[in-house]
Sequence to fold (1032 residues):
Amino acid sequence: MDDLLNEFLTETKENLDRLDTEIVRLEQEPNNPELLGSIFRVMHTIKGTCGFLGLPRLEKVAHAAENVLDVIRKGKRAVTPYAISVVLEAIDQIKFITAILEESEKEPEGEDKTLIACLNAVATGDDGEDSVETSDIAPPQEESATAAAEKPDTQPAITPEIKVAPAAVAPIKKATPEKEKTANTEGAADQTIRVSLQLLETLMNTVSELVLTRNQLLQIGRSQKDSEFTVPLQRLSHVTSELQESVMKTRMQPIGNAWNKLPRIIRDLANELHKKIDLQMVGEDTELDRQVLEMIKDPLTHMVRNSADHGIETPEVRKESGKAETGTIKLEAYHEGGHIIISISDDGKGLAIEKIKEKAIANGLATEDELAEMTEQQINQFIFRAGFSTAAAVTSVSGRGVGMDVVRTNIEKIGGTIDMRTTQGKGSTFTIKIPLTLAIVSALIVGVGKERFAIPQLSVVELVRVTKHSDNKVEFISNTPVLRLRDKILPLVSLKKVLGLESGQEDSFENASSLFIIVTQVGAYQFGMIVDKVFDTEEIVVKPVSSILRHIALFSGNTILGDGSVIMILDPNGIAAKTGEGGTNEAISHAQTQEKSPTSIDEKIAMLVFTAGGRTPYAVPLALVARLEEVDMSTVEFSNGQPLIQYRGALMPLVMVTPDYPLHDSGIQPILVFSEGDRSMGLLVDKIVDIAEEVVKINLPSSDHHGLLGSAIIRGQATDIIDAHYYINLAFADWFKKSHTLGNAGSENRSRNRRLLVVDDSAFFRNLLLPVLSVTGYEVIALENPLQAIELREKGEMFDLIISDIEMPQMDGFAFARNIKTEGGWNNIPLVALSSYSSAEDFQKAKIAGFDTYVPKFDRDALLQTIDRILGEVALAA
Amino acid sequence: MAKELINSQSKQYVALTLAGQLFGIPVLNVHDVLQNPQVNNIPLAPPEVAGSLNLRGKIVTAIDLRCRLGINTRESKDDSTMCIVIEYKGDMYSLIVDSVRDVLTLPDKDFEKLPSTVHPRWREVSQGIYKLDTELLMVLDIGKLFAELEERAA
Fold:
């Protein structure tokens, strides 16, 4: 592109951005001649340059706009909102034309007749608004100021009345304070030059190189005492540090650059929405890295728009609630310990918590019960979720549901955080905390095997050192390491394993005498990374990895350390994704449902705790265990490879918890006997530890090991919960089929092909009931809530019996029963209530609601008998 | 020098050897030649990637050219290695080779297409060969050298 044109475009763009702000200011201060002069000059420059470069279309628009500004400046016309709007429109048109110029180097075809006509009408006073006499708004000295601007050289002595310091005039020495200020700002403009970004980047790289060389020299210097180099080296070191700091500063820009579009946006919005909004900006001079600035520009704009659209009420509403008619949006920026804090606050109506709750339920993000347990703060966080907008109607401004989650993602991308506080009726405040620069981050340098890696400090929550004797120990859930940290189970990731640096069994962390766990937070997901060593924190310069390595999601970049070696920067996000937790958003909801659903029932369950190989104890609900026995291992016989013992006159298969569990050929060993009908199986264990009555919360779904429901803390220890169903199947896989084909009489026959529906909100109980019922031969469908059941009914599914829990979120068992008995095609299906409350009163209530009978939750035999009896009755009746 | 570079009758190559075979890289592609640089391992990287090294403050990804061309890895690690630093699509790479020889000016008339009997793995990355008095020099095509690696990364 033509150099001249290029320069014109850059300059015009900057000028136009300034104009936006200044014209809006002009509306508030119509009598500020300084402002008018400045605006006029910008338009004048654009017009002049266009003529010079041969851009007729642009010149015409600029000329017409200049005319309007001129008459206003001369006091012939008053500053009216209409005039301002027309001028702003002209600026938009100039922006549009310059944008096309930038792309094609040509002016777009067409003319701007209407716009120019509007501008001319304002200039000549034909727009219907009364033209204002000059005297009252424009003091006579303004004319002379203009005169001064035009021939500065001939007017060396400027009289004190002159308020305008035109750009052409060299800084005025003796002036009123106001004039001094103007002179200063213009002086500053003269002292800046434009430098290409490329050059700055090169400078930055060269300086990093210099720093590294300096560090090397210092290291050599330290080993040589009393060297004559010591003093010059010290000086070199200082100069280098200073240079580095200055170069870093060249990347910094005032945050005001990201803000200067906002006054215009707010003005337009206020007009459109008929609101009165005052935008206050504090700390425009706060500087931050150019790259970061670019990244937060859009989120900031979006949030300010949000405040104006959703936050601030209309003047009438504000008046009614006793507030000033004009709402205030305040933008504030300041430094705080290596971070920059930006807050956006409004004195509007605040967030309506009820609306958020409704929306959260409607979107399936949370249930009513869950919401009831949450703090207001937690509920408010929902607005940062995808697809969430509290605006009832979609306006052109916001409310399309692509709002705050995008803002949050963008801010988190640059390692920042966003927080929100709101008081209903008083307003809300958003606080964004972002790092000053992306180029240099503070990182923890860790050792894994022989390698070193950097982990950004921002994602490190805490460091835990684990030794053989420390309180914190690494425990295992089917070979997956976890750490119990303040009574919560923290999943662990062995970096050595993930990075493929394990050289053998003896090299694995399990044998290390001491290791470090870096507790890391990704979204709401916390996990620990196991490393061998922690060296140091260091300020590192982040450099992108080469394109052929960009597919390795575990690294976010690489860097050069002080000693000159190149190390990789780990990306906790990538590690979380690779080791199980998917996208951050999902991780959050996942973690919450995992935590929430079992807690919705805080009933204690008797769990039998035992050990069977490995480090982790196992547990199984006691209700499922028929008997505890001890067997003499020398009496074990084999049939078709399956170990068996003679037990109560029949053969009973023995099953191992894990396939690699050793089968001893002598000694006494305890077994857990699981029985169904006339069949029994024995589960071989090492030792029965205890029977614990606990509220069981299954925290982690087991990953790959079959036979486990998950793990939970029992007796203060991470414990695997075994899935009895799995083992019974294992022992009776073929027995089962046999008994069916033989068609054993009695209950067996009855249970065949019978479909049962189990509705219980607790995954734990569903898992507990399933084996009991399906082993008996029923076909069981288990659902989490009655609503799903009703859905099935709508689809025309049929069952022979429905078993339902009473205490459930969304719809409880009573409501469910009433619904079944009164609506749809299920009103003849027998209903069995299942609950831990078993008072006569409860029993009565259940009967009234429509349940046929009522069984205490933990009585396995009673349940089976009841089912058998009811189905028998139905069969007889039929 | 400048005359030779623009002379259409001949081209200049940095000559290097790998397992006894002579190769050439267009001299204009070459930024630097390093001897025995300290290479830092990159876990999980493709096998061709030997690691990364620090070239005066720039991070350079080291590619083991033997591995890339399917030649057996060096027997003893003590042998000194040479690195040829090139730039490809804005990233810096260093090609680890056995030795680096002179810059050769080779006349176009000595250039010939690679015989079709040469292993496809080599044909894939070479434009052709130059007939030298005593040896044959195979010309490496930088773009093709990286095409496959890039594809795998995509």
Notes: Chain B touches chain A through 28 residues (CB under 8 Å). The first strand of chain B starts at residue 10 and ends at 18. Residues 2-145 of chain B form a domain with the OB fold (Dihydrolipoamide Acetyltransferase, E2P) fold (CATH 2.40.50.180).
